[in-house]
Structures are given as C-alpha cells and as structure tokens.
Amino acid sequence: MGIISMIVVGFIVGLIARALMPGDQKFGIIMTIILGIVGSIVAGYLGAALGFYQPGEGAGWIGSIVGAIIVLFIYGMVTKKR
Predict the structure, then answer these.
(1) Which of 54, 56, 70, 80 has its C-alpha lying 20 to 30 A from 41's C-alpha?
(2) How far apart are alpha carbons 8 and 81 in whole angstroms?
(3) What is d(CA 17, CA 27) in angstroms, rounded to the nearest whole number?
(4) Interval 18-45: pLDDT, tens
(5) What are the sequence ranges of the domains in the chain?
(6) Among 18, 21, 9, CA closest to 61
(7) In the predicted model, is pLDDT for residue 82 greater than 70?
(8) Whole-number Å distance between alpha carbons of 39 and 74
(9) Cα 10 from Cα 39, distance rounded (Å)
(10) How many Å apart are CA 44 and CA 39, to the nearest integer?
C-alpha cells in the first residue's frame, strides 16, 4: 500500500508543480509521477539540511511541491543549454 500511495502523491505533487511552473513541460504521466517523487525526496533532504525537518521525517505537501518546482527549474536549465 505504501508504494501505491507514493505513486498517487507523486502524481498529484507533479501535476501541481507543473501547473505552478511557467513554461510548457512536455511530460507524460510516468515523468510527472517521477517528478513528484523526486521533488519530495529533494524537499526532505533540503529541509533536513536547513533544520526544518528531523532526520528521517518526510516533507509535507507544500515542501514536496517546492522541491518538485526546484527539480523542474534545474531540468529547464539543463535542457535549455542543449
């Protein structure tokens, strides 16, 4: 049940991040799910490094969305230089 909930939350977070980030991201459903999951991981590590979360504590919804936006920004910077 944990994997299914992670996929659903990743999809929702990825959709929200793509809606908030300006520009046109051509991602399919799988890439949107991966974006949300990676955004949650980035937010968890970044929040723990900054002292917002305890080690091992997961990021919340807003933190996950911010993490996904950071990932989208980095992805845009990398693909723009090609």
Answers:
(1) 80
(2) 32
(3) 12
(4) 999 887 778 888 998 999 999 888 888 8
(5) 2-80
(6) 9
(7) no
(8) 11
(9) 8
(10) 9
